[in-house]
Structure formats: C-alpha cells, structure tokens
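Slack export, channel: ligand-projects

TW: morning all. Re-posting the request from yesterday since it got buried. We need the structure predicted with the small molecule present, not the apo form. The ligand is adenosine-5'-triphosphate; the SMILES is in the block with the sequence. No rush, but it would help planning for next week.
GE: picking it up
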Amino acid sequence: MKQYNTIKTKYPDALLLFRVGDFYETFGEDAIKASKILGIILTHRNNGGDRTELAGFPHHSLNTYLPKLVKAGQRVAICDQLEDPKLTKSIVKRGVTELVTPGVALNDDILNAKTNNFLCAVHFGRKLLGVSFLDISTGEFLVAEGNEEQIDKLLQNLSPNEILVSKANKKEFTELFGTQYHTFFTEDWLFQDDYALETLTKHFKTNSLKGFGVDQLTHGIIASGVVLHYLSETQHRQLQHINTIKRIAEEEYIWMDRFTIKNLELYHSSNSNAVTLLDVIDHTISPMGGRMLKRWLALPLKNIEKIRRRHQVISHLKVDGTLLQKLQTGIKQMGDLERLISKVATGKIHPKEVIQLKNSLEAAIPIKQLTTQSSNEALKLIGDQLHSCDLLRAKIKEMVNEEAPVNVLKGNTIAQGYSEELDELRGLAFSGKEYLDKMLERETELTGISSLKIASNNVFGYYIEVRNTHKDKVPDTWIRKQTLVNAERYITEELKEYEAKILGAEERIQLLEQQLFAQLVVWMQEYIVPVQNNARQIAILDCLCGFTQLAISNHYNEPQLNDSTELEIIGGRHPVIEKQLPLGEAYIANDLVLNRENQQIIMITGPNMSGKSAILRQTALIVLLAQMGSFVPAESAKIGYVDKIFTRVGASDNISMGESTFMVEMNETASILNNLSERSLILLDEIGRGTSTYDGISIAWAISEYLHEHPARAKTLFATHYHELNEMASTFERIKNYNVSVKELKNKVLFLRKLTPGGSEHSFGIHVAKMAGMPQQVIQKANKILKKLEKSHSSEELTDKLHAVQDEMQLSFFNLDDPLLEQIKEEITTLDINTLTPVEALMKLNEIKRLLTKNKKASS
Ligand SMILES: Nc1ncnc2c1ncn2[C@@H]1O[C@H](COP(=O)(O)OP(=O)(O)OP(=O)(O)O)[C@@H](O)[C@H]1O
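GE: finished. pasting the full token output, ligand included:
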C-alpha cells in the first residue's frame, strides 16, 4: 500500500490500475468508481486497522475494461510490474507505463473508426484565443486562432474528445463553451510561448515553425505546445507520425456559426434518433474516407476551381460505372491505413496488423493503375500521388507469416526462410516427436518392456511410464519419480538433456521472433510519410466515390458554381426529409431565386406544417453540398459561391435552459447582423415569435429592413407567421413575398407544399390543431375567439400603423445625411470592437453622447 500510495500521489486525477500478480486492482475512491462503471464487485480489506475499498479484474481483461473506463470520461493510469517477480526477493518494482485519457487513445476498442479522436487545447490570449487539435491515432495536428465565436465553431465542428485548459481560465472556458466537453484543467505555467515553441521545435527537429506556415500564430502555438506536452506527460513518446502541423485556413471555407451547424442538423441532432445530413450523404466505405467526409462537411470550400474538380470526378465516375465499381472494390479491401501506420510509429502494431497494412497497400496498386490511366485530371493526380511502397510490401512479405497471430509471443510470426537460426531452432523444437519415438523404440528393445510410454507433465517434465508387471525389468540408471496404482514413472539422463534443449529452443525462438519483429517495425517507420499520404489520397477517392453513389441512388445533379452573387435552384429538395417520407409520398420540389438586384429577401408565409422550414433548410443544404463538392438534390442549381451561412430559428423551436429563450434568439440574431457580407446566405425561421405579437412583428420588421438597407445586401429567406410583414414588399424593392401554398377544402387544409409568389392571408394554426386531433370543443372555441380578435385588431389597422411609423421615422441609418450623424456613423464604423476594452467602449459612448448633447444645445 505504501508503494501504491506513492504512485497514486503522482497521478491524483487519474484512476490508477495497479497490477498485482495476475490482476489489476483499484483502491479507495478509484475502486468505488471502477466498480460502478464496470459493474465489478466492490470488496473491502483491512489495512492495519483502516478499511480500504478494493475492486479488480484479471489482467488479460484489460482490453475489455479499459475502453469502458475511458468512454465514461476517466483518465486511467496503468501501473505495471516492471520486473519479473520471480527474480526479486523484495517488493516488485512498479511504475505507470501509460496514461490513457479520452483524448489520447490508440486502442481500437476506444476509437470510433469513422471519427477522429482529437485531443485539444484552448489558450486564452488577451485579445484572441488559440486552439490546437491532435489525433494521436492518425497523426493529424491542426492549429488555429480567432475570437470566441471562431473557436466555438471549431470545437463544434471537430468535436474533440478532451480539451486542455489552464486552471486560471476554468470559469471563462465553461462560460463561453459550456460543459459538454471532457475538460482537463492543467497547470497555468504550461501556457507559455517560449516553452511551447521549444516543445514544438524539439519535436519537429526544426529551428522555427516557419516551414509549417504557423509561426505567426502566437496563441495557437501555445495551445499546440500544451497538447504535445500532454502527450509526453501521458507517457506517449514515440510520435514520429506527427510530422507536420497545419493551420486551419478558415478564410478558405464557408463560415457557419454554431447555431447554424446545430439548426441544419449536419452531424448532430437534438433528438438522438433523428437522421442527420451526414447519415444521408455518407456512402464512404473506408474509415479514413469516413473521417475525411466529416472534415469536408465541417469545412465546405469557397474556391470554385477546387469545387469544380470534385464535381468533375463525380461526373466522370457516374458515366463510367465499371471504374467506380473497381475503385470501390479496391477501397473495400483496405484497412485503416492511417491508424495502422500510426501504430508503427508508436510501436504498438501487432503482427496481424502488419499483414493488414501490407494487404491494404497491395489493394492500392490496382487503384493506382486505374486512376493514373484515367482521362480525368483529378483522378490522375490521385493516382500519381499514390506510392506503391514496393520495398515495404516486399519486406513484410519476406519477413512475416501471412497467418501471423495477434500476439508475437504466440509464435509463428516470422516467416520460414527469413532467419537461418530461427529455422534451425524451430526444427529442433518441432522435430521433438520424431526424436521421442526413436528413443521409445530403442528403450523398448533394450529393456524388452513392450508397454513403455513417454509423456510429460507440468510437475517433473518428460518421463517414461512402466506398468507394474514389467517393474523388475527397469534398468538401475532410471530414476523413479512417481508411483501410480498400476504403473511407475521414471526419468532418465537422456530425457532431461532433451528437455533442456527443447525448452531452451522454445525460449530462444520466442526471443528471436520478438527481436526480429521489433526490428521490422523500426525499419517500417521510414514509410510513415508515404503511407500517410496514401491514406489521404484513398480518403479523398473514397469520398468522391461515395458522392457518386449518393448522386446515383438519390438522383442528385451537378450544380454550376460561379462567382456571381446569384442563387437559382430549380426543383430543389430537402436531402434528409425526402428520405424520411412515408412510402408512396413524394417530396414536392421547389424553385427558388435569390439575388442582390431585385430579389434579395424572400418573405415566406404559410400555415404551420406547410413546409416553410423545409424550404429554408434545403436551400442552405443544397449550397453546402455543392460547395463540399457533392452533387445536389435539385434538377439544376446555379450557385454564386457563398462565404457565410447563417440560420436562426425562433425561440419556441429552440428551447434552451436558463437564459430567456427570447434573449437567446435576439443574441443569436444580433451576431448575424454584425457579420454580414455580400455573399452571405441568411435563413431566419420565425424570428420574433418568442415574444408578444406586436413585439415580434416590430422586431421582425426592423431586422428585415436593416438587412434590406445594409450595403452587403445579403440574400435572405425569412419564414414567418406574421402575414403583416407582407406589407414590406410594397415599400422595399428587394423584398418579395412568397407563400407555401395550401388548399382549403371545406374547413380542411390540403398542403400543396409549392412555393408560390404572393403573400398569404392568415395562419391556419387552428386547422393544424384540428389535424392533430384536438377535441372538437377546443377547435370550435378557438375559431370563435379568432373571429372576435380579428374584428377588434384588424391586421389592416396594424399594417396601416406600421406604414405610419415607417414614414415618420425613416429608420434607415444609412440614408441619414445630417453631418453630425455622419460623423458619429464614421466614429462607430471605424471602431475595432475586437481591440476595445469595456472601459474604452464606455468612454467612446460618453464621447458620442457629448457630441449629441452639444449639438442639441447649439440648435436650441
Ligand atoms: N416539399 C415537401 N414535400 C413533402 N413533404 C414536405 C415538404 N416540405 C415539408 N414537408 C413535410 O412537412 C413537414 C413540416 O414541414 P416544415 O417543418 O417545413 O413546416 P413549417 O411550415 O416550417 O411548419 P411550422 O410553421 O409549424 O414550423 C415536414 O416535416 C415534412 O414531413
């Protein structure tokens, strides 16, 4: 226990698995936790009067229990016996050989094949935050920096399994990013620029980080340094596969904030059973392809050329079905190249996996041939970049047995014919039977005993057994070892010698196989870079083949990307909803045009359940799919590439805890209005409905007007129940009204789901209530109340009032030509909010106030 306690104090935050003989034991608090998580029995033992809890499991079950502990969010320190207990008289030496945490895992049972397992660190700088992501199982190492929103978005997109934050920023981190992540709060001193730079340059064996193009990211570098430091702290020191660090070049990708990622249900859904976009579009067949697709979804491109290249490959493969099939057959035969080669680097690969690696590389050969011969440039490029790894494959073939076991100690790993010494020893060990048969024959003849038998047991090894009837014929040189009822067992000098030779040979074989295998693994490390590159090319190819499959099976078409700012979708569909409809029900396709000239904002009205949200979301998803490089669920689509997608859903659809839901809605919307660009696509779904009708209409009106008047003229779809907003179209030239049509049949509503020009008169909420099976009395009463209300608050009255306000206020900020207001506008627009402290902001406000009051006094 003294030894245990000394080791435990070094790992206070981890659950310590303490090897005792054939068991891993846990004590005290750890035992209570382990027994709960693993469902193993909790016992007690008295320890010099103190009662200690105890729970353990057999050491060979580590692979079963460890993943459960890590998946439950535990950091697990594995403490092993560092010497052979037989060779020591005192207490056996023990030490922690690995610290497994949710973000640092190499074990296949912990990892999810199609998902990266990122360890992340977030550094809080004075103005910016730095972030770094590292997947030790694949070798990817990424870095970025930005404001809270940008970091938040990256965290959402890359879903790290563990985040390291300095203790000093614990509160700040939880306030900004919530509590949904596994976090580990580390010592503050680690977050230092010089220490980080030293850690990184030492690892990469470079003088600076210039070569990686990340030397300017001071905060990102600090975060990256912390991540690398953590790896050594968790006893991971063989990291040759982490050979580069890449900046996440956010400016190259569509910007989506976290609300948008959530609202569009790209890869998570608030309802865990719901189907996400990823579920529908993922037709990849290799683990690395699956991981790549997630990355593409998180980071859709803006570069038209790059996007087109992906589309061209899909067009090509769609026509050449045989090529597609052949490529996919090849990809299917591959293991997880990326993770296999990482295991080579970390020295954790086992013989069977080496064979898998070889077979995977072999499967790449026909793929290389097929693609290099292709007339498609992008496919040809993939082929050219695939490395055939001839030497590596040949060496594995020569050295490792095709049927090699998982555990090298099981023997038969090194192929026959590779090592003369090994072959000789094997001959000796395996020719034993023949040797014993000969010995038996000889002794039978010499002694004249016909029923002699040679066998072995664990107690005294090889023996000769003589039945009692022949006892008296036994030579004097034999030594009696055991007496049975009907027989006696003897050993002889020759048998003992033979035994020693065999046992020696077996031990030597084991040692030699281990040595040779270890040498091979070290030799294989030369191939880390080419194999990693192959994995990347195969991942890209897998994604593109998957997109082709998707286009074929779901009838997607090629979108036309251009650098205009216009969006024209003909016959567009929602990729997820169309797959969910009951059998026989067809999804109704819709056309939609948005541009900055005459149709910038579309107000979509229509009853509940008519399909407003579906149109909004499908528009964003079609753009997103197109810019990921996929075909789209539409007859045709012309897309002026988009650089930001914002979506906001009215509060009652998006109930969040704690903060007022309306407040949340307004916060979210404010951040859109502050980040508009000419290429933004904005989807507002029922914004304003979280408050009273008048409040809601006023806010929705003001937001739409702001968007209309803003010089960016961002393309916007606004779904709303407030048909009063239809009035805006008469004043604002780029606002157009549409409705999702329904047909009224004798008090019933038939959803036509067609987007048609023009506004709609009322909301049909009561019809939907009726459809939902609300009792008849409730429906009748609601109808009566509605009629009364409509009489007393006619919506015409309301819209007249709105017009009056409009004339009076000339709300538009941008049309004001008062020189003082011009000056204030100038002041405000040139402010750099990012660098402003709260006090400076107050002072600025005070200054503006003074300007205004001075002006007022002067004019009075
Ligand atoms: N074009 C379509 N073709 C077929 N079914 C559709 C279509 N659009 C929507 N639906 C179906 O109608 C349901 C309701 O659509 P949606 O949520 O878009 O309505 P909504 O008008 O936004 O309703 P609410 O105002 O109540 O939020 C969808 O879940 C889907 O099942």
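GE: first-pass observations. Residues 653-659, 810-816 have pLDDT under 50 and may be disordered. The chain has six domains: 2-100, 119-248, 277-389+528-554, 420-519, 560-813, 816-859.
TW: perfect, thank you
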